[in-house]
Design goal:
Length: 202
């Protein structure tokens, strides 16, 4: 079965998304990524949230899960065919975790108000960077405007945009630093794979 890991990830995200509609907010309370700072005098953060938040999405915005799953399929499928399901999952969840850690620590340095984080975007941005490293000259076409460009340039532009938006506080409510954190996680993983491959050759 091709792209098994990607299909499982997508199915899990869709299942949790459907469960969110009948949970009366319980799933978000327990599984979303809450800040380390107290909210209304109480700390809601729990360690497992650095992973579970990535399976939740905004139920009021269908495009949130749609675009995340579309990108997960587009980039993840090619990566899985290249490195296998195990490495795909390692890269994805490393990105999810580093995205969460970045979101917990960095926004507070810029005075951003504490809030919950949910969505697979951190993992998806990690896969985007991994794709750009593995297939730098592959052409990617933007949806709006439909301009083809090499994967390395596509990933670089998105990273610069996220950094600018995060530092300036533009488009508040979007976890820009989590997206950058996801890229850091995949960069560390792919770099380690390449070092291991070089050592094996030597």
């Amino acid at each position: 079965m091709k792209n098994t890991a990607v299909k499982i990830l997508i199915a899990a995200n869709v299942l949790v998304f459907l469960l969110q509609f009948v949970s009366n907010g319980w799933i978000e309370d327990v599984l979303a990524l809450w800040p380390l700072q107290p909210i209304e005098g109480e700390v809601h953060f729990r360690p497992w949230q650095i992973v579970t938040y990535a399976f939740l999405h905004e139920t009021s915005n269908f495009f949130h899960i749609f675009f995340n799953m579309f990108a997960l399929f587009m980039f993840g499928s090619e990566i899985e065919r290249y490195v296998g399901p195990r490495r795909l999952l390692i890269c994805y969840f490393a990105s999810v975790v580093t995205a969460a850690l970045t979101q917990l620590l960095v926004p507070a340095l810029f005075g951003a108000p504490p809030g919950i984080t949910l969505g697979a975007s951190g993992g998806v941005f990690g896969l985007l960077l991994a794709y750009a490293i593995m297939f730098p000259t592959r052409k990617i076409v933007l949806l709006i405007p439909p301009i083809p460009m090499p994967a390395w340039l596509f990933a670089t532009i998105f990273a610069c945009i996220e950094l600018f938006l995060g530092v300036t506080g533009t488009l508040s409510g979007i976890a820009h630093f989590a997206h950058l954190g996801g890229m850091i996680g995949s960069a560390l993983v792919v770099t380690q794979w390449r070092r291991a491959a070089i050592r094996k050759i030597r």
